[in-house]
Amino acid sequence: MLGTRLERVPTTMTKTFNRSWLILLLVLYAGVLLYGTLKPFRFTWHPGRDKMSKRSQIEWVPFTRLCPTYGIFCPQDTGLNIAIFMPLGALVALMSRPGPGRLSRTLRAVIVGCVVSVVIETAQYFIPDRFPGITDVIWNTLGACLGGLVTASIGTHSTASPKNQVNNS
Predict the structure, then answer these.
(1) What is the per-residue pLDDT across 88-99, written as a single tens digit (0 to 9) for each?
(2) I need a surface site. Which of 70, 99, 129, 140 has the fewest CB within 10 A?
(3) Facing residues of 133 across strands?
(4) 123 vs 44, 50, 128, CA distance in Å?
(5) pLDDT (tens digit per residue) in 100-137
(6) What is the count of structural domains for the chain?
(7) Does residue 162 form part of some domain?
(8) Is residue 163 part of a domain?
(9) Residue 62 and residue 134 in contact, taking contact as beta carbons nearer than 8 Å
């Protein structure tokens, strides 16, 4: 009985340690993500601009902003938006407690990715050199979804349940 209790302590400590590292990674990645998407950090209420002209630069309808080279679909922006949000989705899926399965972890990644993307696009409205858009929210959310789905699918998250554990008593 004493041996059983001692064997469980390192497992609990390991899970806490791993979760702490995941939280640290998520905070660091969020900082990098915010830095990359909000620079040059010149937030302003656009004092010298007509507010209507700034509103017209927001892409309210998805897939309507034209890419100078490719027309509607801009592969560089699309690929970058998906790629930068995949790690966010993966970290959220890794941090999620085991639920009904990979769908719940992926759904959490999608929700967090969408919320973070909307916050970033809203902040970009106040940066003169940036142009927020709904298409970016869609691609960013897709990236978080793919990151969460890949992570949940490869089984890197501990899904141990009481029925899978060996009883040593």
Answers:
(1) 999 999 888 766
(2) 129
(3) 59
(4) 10, 18, 11
(5) 677 888 999 999 999 999 999 998 888 877 888 899 99
(6) 1
(7) no
(8) no
(9) yes
